[in-house]
Write a structure and sequence with these properties.
Radius of gyration: 21 Å
Number of domains: 2
Number of helices: 14
Largest sheet: 6 strands, mixed
Structural class: alpha/beta
Order of helices and strands: EEHEEEEHEHEHHEHEHEEEHEHHHHHH
Shape: globular
Helix content: 40-55%
Distance between the termini: 51 Å
CATH architecture of the largest domain: 3-Layer(aba) Sandwich
Bound molecules: nicotinamide-adenine-dinucleotide
CATH class of the largest domain: Alpha Beta
Strand content: 15-25%
CATH superfamily of the largest domain: NAD(P)-binding Rossmann-like Domain
């Protein structure tokens, strides 16, 4: 039997091409969108994971992926994380994420981001984009010139601006909650804390920690960035590999995901892992269990780094920085609740937070079957995503 399917006169798809659908089914994704505009160098992927609670919200990341499959995998994993992040943070949004394949240092053009904005507009509000790794307010403004479905736009344009300071505040509060759980006190004074990455989130986080008198270590693949942050905060700079060999109280990954993996996990010596990066664990199930067995308390990343999404979601109601910070400070209680649930049910913190997020999606989702006249009129004035 021929497993191939003819889709046009000169293009035959083999059965393997359908494995993309298996990936969507395995991770419960709703939609995967490929956006191509070679004239302006745009190769983007938008992943929409789950829209039970509301439109999919999540940032766009620009990264020089080594393969298209790696970019797809990143978009799928990150968007799934956004669903859980919104759910556990009590937000009425689903999970989505976009990736643009390219070098954020050399490949950016106005036309590229405006083309991306047009594709986002075409999704008609099913996905709301925002700033993530490799992006700045300048690119968000370009995207905004083509679509209203964008958050985290500059303050000068009426948006909430860069979410990194709020994300960092949430990570700081979450780190304190983890310290409370591990040490009985949430003071971080004199704690040996290593921050991986010296980017936006890391910079604001390091400032909070320096103020509290923590003993800081910092690394970045661009040494000048680490040096710069170290000069400001009194941190010690270490090499990207050395960070895994330090004897620490807290390890705070604030660069990219999958940094706790089969190669690194046995080298890490700390009491707590609490960082701003998404998808810190390469294999969520395996590595969260391994950390637990080694007595390392892991703060699930999508819980602790939710400050950014809390910040951009508040843009929908008219941005108020004070309220966004207040809501972000609740990450402290959310995390303590996750730790308590995990202890009471003999689960890892990741399993506990997954269950708590899924329970909210299921229970809130169930009320959507109740007819309400408001849902009929929510399309007015493009307000569908502002509920
Ligand atoms: P950023 O691009 O400003 O900073 C990332 C830094 O990590 C860069 O300086 C980069 O050079 C460095 N880096 C990359 N790989 C590294 C490695 N192997 N070792 C050391 N350093 C490395 O990004 P950001 O906005 O600070 O975000 C950092 C992380 O936090 C990302 O995983 C992002 O998804 C996550 N996050 C960010 C926000 C936000 O508000 N910005 C919100 C939620 C989650």
């Amino acid at each position: 039997m021929n497993d191939s399917v003819a889709v046009s006169d000169n293009k035959i798809l083999s059965e393997n091409d359908y494995s993309l659908f298996s990936q969507l089914v395995n991770m419960n994704h709703e939609q995967l969108v490929f956006c191509s505009r070679p004239e302006v160098g745009l190769k983007a992927i938008v992943a929409i994971h789950d829209t039970t609670l509301g439109p999919a919200l999540g940032g766009v990341r620009m990264w020089k992926y080594s393969s298209e499959n790696q970019a797809i995998r990143d978009a799928l994993r990150l968007s799934r994380g956004m669903t859980y992040k919104a759910a556990i943070s009590g937000l009425n949004f689903g999970g989505g994420k976009a990736v643009i394949i390219g070098d954020s240092r050399t490949d950016k053009t106005e036309a590229m981001f405006r083309a991306f904005g047009k594709f986002i507009e075409g999704l008609a509000g099913r996905y709301l984009t925002a700033e993530d790794v490799g992006m700045t307010e300048r690119e968000m403004s370009w995207i905004y010139s083509e679509t209203k479905y964008v958050t985290g736009i500059p303050k000068s344009l009426g948006g909430s601006g860069d979410p990194s300071p709020v994300t960092a505040y949430g990570v700081y509060m979450g780190m304190k909650a983890a310290a409370k759980k591990a040490y009985g006190s949430d003071s971080l004074s004199n704690k040996r804390i290593a921050i991986q990455g010296a980017g936006s989130v890391a910079t604001y986080l390091a400032r909070y920690l320096a103020k509290e008198n923590a003993k800081l270590f910092i690394t970045d693949i661009f040494e000048e960035k680490a040096n710069h942050l170290a000069r400001e905060t009194g941190a010690e700079v270490v090499s990207p590999d050395e960070i895994y060999t330090l004897d620490l109280h807290i390890f705070s990954p604030c660069a990219l995901g999958s940094v706790i993996n089969d190669d690194t996990i046995s080298h890490i010596s700390c009491d707590i892992i609490a960082g701003g990066a998404n998808n810190i664990l390469d294999d969520e199930k395996k590595h969260s269990l391994e950390l637990q067995n080694r007595g390392i308390l892991f703060a699930p990343d999508y819980v602790i780094n939710a400050g950014g999404i809390i910040n951009i979601s508040s843009e929908m109601q008219g941005y108020n920085e004070k309220l966004a910070m207040e809501k972000t400070s609740q990450i402290y209680d959310t995390l303590l609740n996750v730790f308590e649930y995990s202890e009471n049910h003999n689960l890892t913190p990741v399993e506990a937070s997954n269950i708590l997020a899924e329970e909210r999606i299921k229970s809130v989702g169930s009320i959507k079957t109740i007819y309400s006249s408001e849902s009929n009129f929510s399309n007015r004035q493009g307000e569908i995503y502002r509920r």
